[in-house]
Amino acid sequence: GTSSVINGYEATTGQINVEYLKPQTQDPIALNGMVSTSLRAELNATGGWDINEKWSTGVLAHYKNESMEHDTNGDGFMDLPKGQQANLLNRWYMKDGAYTGQYLVRGLYDERNGGQTMQYIADNNIADPYKIGIRTWRMDAFMKQGYVFDEAKGTSIGIIASGSYHNQHNIYGHRVYDGVQGNFYLNAMFQTYFDETDKHKITAGLSLNYDNYYEVMTSDKAEFLIPTVESPKKTLNMTRHEFTPGVFAEYSLKVDEKLSL
What pTM was computed for the model? Predict the structure, then answer.
């Protein structure tokens, strides 16, 4: 549902909150494996450990493999793409008095292959089959820093910074799509209550969001694309970048347990 402006200007139109296992509370080790009747195999491993009184770390790992072709309706096309995915995440949590810090880094590789089945291609002697291939590489990280000056009045400052790199190479028949996105996000805020009750709260800060997109689609059969001088193939280039700085302030009034403005 709708969220607050403190989570970014786009959050006012709706937001989904994703919670990962927390290093300071998750089990030391947990394993989960699965093999389905369609020969899809998955393995998940998580663990969280206290390094000392201040530091905790957690690891989340996932691997999936699905290499069997499925064509239950017999139309010659795979019902589901084959592929594999590896996902590894490491998170750190630090608590030292009034100071709290969180850090996360994650890497992802995802591979998917679809289109006409090998059996259909062989049975019909198709020289130019329709195939789909998707390769995705992604890295992202975030940092959260917070310090509480007055716990009774909730006076605190917080800084959130995150960055991501997303690289995707796709083939759809004769069309090739390459997309790369780099993102950096920064949010620094100050928050306090007017007194030692939680009825009147003010939050103010600044934010910065930067996106750099590299998107190119090429095709030797798509007539709507514009041919380039360098290549006989037709190319559509959608490279761009977006830079959005901002400042914000928010006043909250808690009328009672069921109503806040």
Answer: 0.81
Q: CA dihedral in degrees (90, 83, 165, 3; nearest 10)?
A: -70
Q: Which residue has the tokens 């607050």?
A: 4
- Give 22-36 pLDDT, tens digit per residue: 998 889 999 999 999
Q: What is the pLDDT of residue 230?
A: 54
Round to the nearest angstrom and report the end-to-end CA distance of the chain: 16
Question: Model confidence over 185-229: pLDDT tens digits?
Answer: 999 999 999 877 788 999 999 999 999 999 998 876 544 444 445
168-181 pLDDT, tens digit per residue, is 999 998 889 999 99
Q: Mention every residue, 6+ apart, whose C-beta is less than 8 A from residue 132.
A: 81, 112, 113, 114, 115, 170, 171, 172, 173
Q: Determine what percent of the chain is predicted with pLDDT higher than 70.
A: 92
142-158 burial, b at 16+ Cβ within 10 Å, e below that, comes to bbbbbebeeeebeebeb
